[in-house]
Amino acid sequence: MLGETRRINIYTPPGHETGGPPLPVLYMPDGGMHEDFHHITGIVQVSTVNGTMRPFLVVGIENTERRRDLTGPTDDPEDRKIAPRVGGSAAFRRFIREELMPEIQQRFRTTDESAIVGESLAGLFVLETFFLEPELFDTYIAIDPSVWWNRGSLVKQAVPLLQRPGQPPRTLYVATADEPEMQRIVESIVDALRQVDVPGVHWHHEPMPDEHHSTIFHAAALRAFRTVLAPAAAEPTNEPGAVGTSPAAP
Q1: What is the average per-residue pLDDT within 230-238?
Q2: What mean pLDDT, rounded, does the chain reach?
Q3: Which residues contact 167 (CB under 8 A, 6 or more apart)?
Q4: What residues pair up with 205 in beta bridges, in sequence order?
Q5: Top-tier CATH class for 8-231+238-245
Q6: Angstrom distance (rounded) from CA 141 to CA 172
């Protein structure tokens, strides 16, 4: 699919190594051993043991050309300066859908539930997938996503994409650090979610003004897992800056 060998790293929670019940799967770009795999699996391990999140099989996708795989097309010349090749997110998504997911389901005992977590450009990929291929995952966790990409085009498309028929139920958690412009753009996405109010789509916006882009990942991932992957999720509210929800259709 991508025409290259990809290293995939797997974490199995304690007590689920062999013969245990099927597990939901948490996928993560930036999932190399020298990237964010150990950071996220450490949070998953502690959170699973202390009962603040459900056990998940974690699938880390190690990068080869990160900026190619995690970005969509762009017509902004400044964007194209970040790497020799960009705009490959559709092919990367196809690899996950058509190669990686079937392989994981074949090799491991899994449920039908899946989630994805990513930060920065990986957060952009999470949000783009939430809008463009919403049925791929059940839960989307986007941490300080690089929504400035292509002059913020994802924000401009948010309302019409949410208005497309046949929207599947899903959950979005998005956290932002102390950068005002990033917060403004993400708030526009939240406004689109409020405006369209898609049945069955739940969202949680978490501004974290005490965190920087370089520090937010751990703190936000911990909050996100406790919020949207908890053993028994709390009832969502419409408190500003907390949880928003489009209630499931009766």
Answers
A1: 58
A2: 90
A3: 134, 198, 199, 200, 201
A4: 174
A5: alpha beta
A6: 6
Longest Cα pair distance anywhere in the chain, in angstroms?
52
- Six-digit token string for 46: 């502690």
Q: pLDDT value at position 84?
A: 86
- 92-119 pLDDT, tens digit per residue, is 999 999 999 999 999 999 999 999 999 9
Residue whose tokens read 């977590």? 117
Asked whether 107 and 136 are in contact (CB, 8 A), the reply is: no
User: Would you place residue 239 in the very low, low, confident or very high pLDDT band (cuts 50, 70, 90)?
Assistant: very low
Residue 112 makes CB contacts below 8 A (sequence gap 6+) with none
Residues 154-199: tens digit of each pLDDT: 999 999 999 999 999 999 999 999 998 888 999 999 999 999 999 9
